[in-house]
């Protein structure tokens, strides 16, 4: 049938989803400060989920103003491992919560006990 997707439930169980991450402590501060806070939280959350930033498979970034892309991107590049950046898309969203310049959604693979996916 057209329009129906089949989802492999085992793949979903092996992934960590961290949607809607926004700054709390640095809300209202620069895009760099907000990005750094969010990325550190994502790092901690991934570790609790049994994975790390090297296993990120997809990221969506929402900026209040796309003019701040380069500022966000410098913080992102400093945070990402040298192995490369995952598939990532950046969008503009003028309707982010007040004082919120950025929101990040992340999906990452969980590592198996042997450290392999």
UniProtKB/TrEMBL annotation:
InterPro entries reported in the protein's UniProt record: RutC-like_sf (IPR035959), YjgF/YER057c/UK114 (IPR006175), YoaB-like (IPR035709)
Coiled-coil segments: none
Pfam families, sorted: Ribonuc_L-PSP
Stated name of the protein: RidA family protein
Originating organism: Rhizobium leguminosarum
Lineage: Bacteria, Pseudomonadati, Pseudomonadota, Alphaproteobacteria, Hyphomicrobiales
């Amino acid at each position: 049938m057209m329009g129906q997707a089949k989802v492999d439930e085992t793949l979903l169980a092996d992934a960590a989803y961290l949607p809607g991450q926004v700054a709390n402590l640095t809300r209202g501060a620069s895009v760099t400060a907000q990005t750094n806070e969010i990325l550190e939280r994502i790092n901690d959350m991934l570790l609790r989920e049994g994975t790390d930033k090297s296993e990120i498979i997809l990221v969506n970034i929402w900026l209040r103003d796309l003019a701040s892309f380069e500022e966000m991107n410098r913080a992102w590049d400093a945070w990402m491992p040298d192995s490369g950046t995952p598939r990532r898309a950046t969008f503009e969203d003028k309707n982010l919560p007040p004082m919120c310049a950025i929101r990040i959604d992340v999906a990452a693979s969980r590592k198996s006990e042997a450290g392999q996916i």
